[in-house]
Amino acid sequence: MKNIKWLCKSFNELKPNELYAVLRLRSEVFVVEQNCVFLEIDNKDQIAYHLLGYKDDDLVAYTRLLDKNTAYKLMSIGRVVTSPKYRGTGAGKALMEESIKRCYELFGKDDIKIGAQLYLRKFYESLGFKQSSEMYLEDDIEHIEMIKQVDS
């Protein structure tokens, strides 16, 4: 998808309307659409960088970027979400490419770890991630851990 405006901000740099849009999108997808009753707000937002992709005034896509020793020993990309109305447009791939680039800029060029929903394995493999764990259930959804090595 072209013409996405990317913003990358620390928690304290987020404007109230940006934070609201992020929390609304995450809740719309992770809680309502995926029918998961869990505490989606987990006290990692305050120490993360937030990558927001906008088309006009719409929040199209979002990820949370975490430094090493926060979610994992490796830096990580989490809370990967694309707005339902922008799925199939290439926004998800653009989001992950931008997320990888921003991780390298923020935290240095090193390996990146994610916890991925199993059904998205091929998508993440297309971006250079490789499965690094057995399948596990998180909120009754099949997940795997994946790592993108710095040279891949």
Protein architecture, described:
The chain has three helices and eight strands, in the order E-H-E-E-E-H-E-H-E-E-E. Strands 1, 2, 3, 4, 5, 6, 7 and 8 form an eight-stranded mixed β-sheet that branches. The chain has helices at residues 16-33, 91-107, 121-125, and strands spanning 5-10, 49-55, 58-66, 75-82, 112-117, 129-131, 136-138, 141-148. The mean pLDDT is 95. The protein is of the alpha+beta class. The longest helix has 18 residues, at 16-33. It has one domain (5-148): Aminopeptidase.
CATH fold assignment: Aminopeptidase
Number of helical elements: 3
Mean pLDDT: 95
Secondary structural class: alpha+beta
The CATH architecture classification is 3-Layer(aba) Sandwich
Please tell me the total number of domains. 1
Write down the CATH class.
Answer: Alpha Beta
Q: Can you tell me the CATH superfamily?
A: Gcn5-related N-acetyltransferase (GNAT)
Question: Measured on Cα atoms, how large is the radius of gyration?
Answer: 14 Å
Alpha-carbon distance between the two ends? 23 Å
What is the number of strand segments? 8
Order of helices and strands: EHEEEHEHEEE
The helix content is 25-40%
User: How is the main sheet built?
Assistant: 8 strands, mixed
| Unreliable runs | none
Tell me the β content.
25-35%
Q: What is the 3D shape?
A: globular
